[in-house]
Amino acid sequence: MVRRKLSLRGQVSIFVIIAVVIVAGAVLFFALRDKIAGVQIPASLDPVYKNFLVCLEENTLTGIDVLESQGGYIEMPDFVAGSSYMPFSSQLNFLGNPVPYWYYVSGNNIQKEQVPTISNMEDELNNFIENKIKNCVYDAYYNQGFEIVQQNPRADVQIEDDKVLVNLKMDLSISKGEDNAVISSHNIEVNSELGGLYKDAVKVYNQEQSTLFLENYAVDIMRLYAPVDGVELTCSPKIWNAEKIFDSLKDAIEVNTLSLRSKTGDYGLVDPANKYFVLDLGVNRNIRFLNSKIWSSTFEVVPTDGPVMMFNPVGNQPGLGILGFCYVPYHFVYNMKYPVMIQLYSANSDEIFQFPMAVIIQGNLPRNSGNINTAEESPREFCKDKNSLMQVNLYDNFFNSVDANVSYSCFGEVCEMGETSAGILETEFPQCVNGVIITKADGFLDSRTIVSSVASGTSDIILDKIYEQEISLNLDGKPYSGEAIISFSSDKVSKTVLYPEQNKVKLAEGQYTIRVDIYKNSSLKLEKTIKQQCYDVPRSGLGGLFGLKEEKCVSMEIPEQIISNALSGGGIQEHYIAESELRDNTKIEINAESLKIPKSLEDLQDNYVIFESQKLEVNFK
Length: 621
Hints:
Blueprint: H1 2-37, H2 46-69, E1 91-94, E2 97-100, E3 103-105, E4 111-113, H3 118-132, H4 139-142, E5 147-150, E6 154-159, E7 163-176, E8 179-191, H5 194-211, H6 213-225, E9 229-232, E10 238-241, H7 242-259, E11 261-262, E12 278-279, E13 286-290, E14 298-302, E15 308-311, H8 320-323, E16 328-331, E17 333-345, E18 352-362, E19 365-366, H9 381-384, E20 386-395, E21 405-410, E22 413-419, E23 424-430, E24 435-440, E25 447-451, E26 457-462, E27 467-475, E28 478-479, E29 484-489, E30 494-499, E31 504-507, E32 510-526, E33 529-538, H10 542-545, E34 549-558, E35 561-577, H11 579-584, E36 587-594, H12 601-613, E37 617-620
Parallel strand pairs: 11-12, 20-26, 27-36
Antiparallel strand pairs: 1-2, 3-4, 5-7, 6-7, 7-8, 9-16, 10-15, 13-17, 14-17, 17-18, 18-19, 20-23, 21-22, 21-24, 24-25, 27-28, 27-31, 29-30, 29-32, 32-35, 33-34, 35-36, 36-37
Helix pairs in contact: 2-3, 6-7
């Protein structure tokens, strides 16, 4: 009985202890909850802390906006300038703001990538928040007697598909009167699609790098809006103005680039007639492609003579009577380099993530997508090894000093040497036997002078000054305002002018071949003919093994042809143009003689024979 009572007393004691522990735990929880679940902020201080959290959120949103608008960068990568060969710097000027290219080609033709990672963006946002949080404004609270002290911040950002988590470690002390609090950890969650937009941007980028869909569209535009290759039946030259062709290409690229659409998103439902512009890029967001003709770009075409693109006819030479018709085969090779801004956005928010890429067409074909360099290229070894002191002196034909840019070329390597001062450049050159000093000066012809730099030395270079002259064309002693092709060719200069649309030419001193071709309307008709063309071909069977041949003939049908423009005037003249003529005059007067309008095939052939011996009269005024 005694034992039972003792047992009951022991059980009661255990329950009492448990109750005490529970009560004590509750007391400790409420007493220490500031340390367990964060600092308990007195109500009087709460507005200040809420102001701080608003500041933290605004800075985070600002940083996100900068990342999205600058291709995932807040701190811009080092700027790398472009060149006349490659127009791209490392950044695209978009509405006055620089945006780093994710892909571009440097001025010395090195393919470069600048694609940030999520980790890079988190680091940049960390730094941005740490710098900006120091500038939170508390003036209204200072005036109310609050004391606010911030210690050094350390941010830890996590970018997710639809939100950005920020944990900021920083002692923030707030006090007023007897109330005070020190908060060390600050956590916010910001709704943002930065992570998801970035991931889709990388998908689009990788799709472009693997398929070159932007370049393929560029090739289509080039072939649709510019002459590339073909054959036309005509006895007069085919002529295009390169500047007008380039303007047409720029307009077409701008409009057609904007027409590109994603298969999904708002652009998914499009007119079936426009399916050509729909892209399946494997992302569910809306995508916009932008180009502007005012952005830096380069358009080149060969063959060309200045702005003139021209191919001469075949069949109007002295053998015309045998051929019986005229045609112009043409083939142009284009290099096009221009930027495209790619923007991704969601219908659920107003966020836009954008990045630019360079579109490159070389020799009528899309660029090679391989060998992309993500690191800074080191200077070429040849250009680094400079140990021969050279002095370059530049003069015009009257021995006045000329300032110019100087470079040195050896075995395909081109090294920038610098600018002359008062016509003199003294610097160390890399050693080379029979290297070439290249000079470029405004108002002068570019010069290339062979100079060995194995030992130190001096090089004196004379530059030819360029003068602009107005052209006045007379035909049979009277001013001529019709169309003509006027060309000036020398060993240094080749210029073609489409008169009268162009009536000025820039020339330097030299021996020139001056040629004027005048074409007028004609109604000459060449009838359809059928001719046989015969070839020697190997014999079939055993005879062919021993090199025996037989004649095989095929019929050629030459179509009927109307010659609407026929050679009807002009000539050729050799003329040495002295600098004094160019300097003392502003106009070149050219007098040409007409040819009879051809009425038959024989007349047309005679005109070409006479033209070769018909001279021009050239005067400077």
